Task: structure prediction
Amino acid sequence: MKNKLIEYLFFIFLKTMAFIRFVRNIFYNRREGRKKVTFLIRTDYSRYLVSLILFFVKNGYNVRIVLNREFWSILNKYWFDLSYNKYVSIVLWSKKNQSQIFSDTIFLNNNRLSLKPNYYYPISEELLSNNYKVPFSLHPMFYFKELDSLNLEKVITRKFKLVFAGNLSGIYKNIKCFDEVYLSRVVLVEILMSKFSQYVHFPKTKNELYSTDKPICIIDISNFWLDKKEYISFLSNSDFGLCPVGLRMPFCHNLIECIYTGTIPVLQYNKLLNPELQHLVECISFDGNEYDFISKINMILSGEIHTTDFTNNLFSYYQNNLSPSAVIQQIENLQNLSDKNLFLLAGEAGELSMSLAERE
Result:
């Protein structure tokens, strides 16, 4: 009981210090001659909203978050890290005419634009033509640690043919939340272990990671954990990366991380991206059955795929579509907001609305 009380008091102390830093940052925001964006949000968007906030910061914006009862929950567990960024502050309110506003409240004017998650099903071309889909991102910690701007194009030799690192617990085995049949990460790894066992390296410790000549490397994070920098190095050491679906939706950070490192994604849902990843140009796509997946792995192991062009295509795809600068540029380039009545944000639940008023 005493330990729990100490933990609770320490947690309150951390929040208090973070709150003070957020308030302190207001004065930085006033001095800096940067563009401004305000978030008035009551919906928990988990880490997806945090990534969008960091995108704005990285592209010359001061970000102001309106204080409300949901303030701590909408920042998820990243409020501590965000409070150290001098370009992120809290405000008590936001004037409609002073900045670009993202909001899910109803007080805004008629130009309010709705932004919501919609990743369970493919998005129609008609819907995309009238709206903007905020792409899925790297995990936010890559942006916090400035690991999203490494020059990975200099990587020439890669040790492995195919890699995967992730949670392989039972909850990932039978994914039933989609209409389409997706092979889960657990099922895909089971196929690799049963059909290609002689090629698979399954290290139990970090020291064993690179001590092999086998072309396929699978890491179960229950055995050991790679920090973000080590993980980037691991992906960069492979020609291909296995990109299974996530737990609640097809999209998963491992896909964006592979694209970022120029590691060719092996996946089932390439057509859900916008623009879609092209099979044998930017990815290796397989159908929702074991036999097609096995044939694609055989093709990878045969060495018949010339990977250099793939890798260059992936670097271009990331810079043009997924990088923070590309995302914010696309948002800024919206000319006729009345035609853009819906924005789609990578998320799992909730709704977010967006209103763009005159910038300061």
About this structure: Residues 2-140+327-356 form one domain. Confidence is low (pLDDT under 50) at residues 107-111, 349-360. Residues 203 and 211 are 9 Å apart (CA to CA).
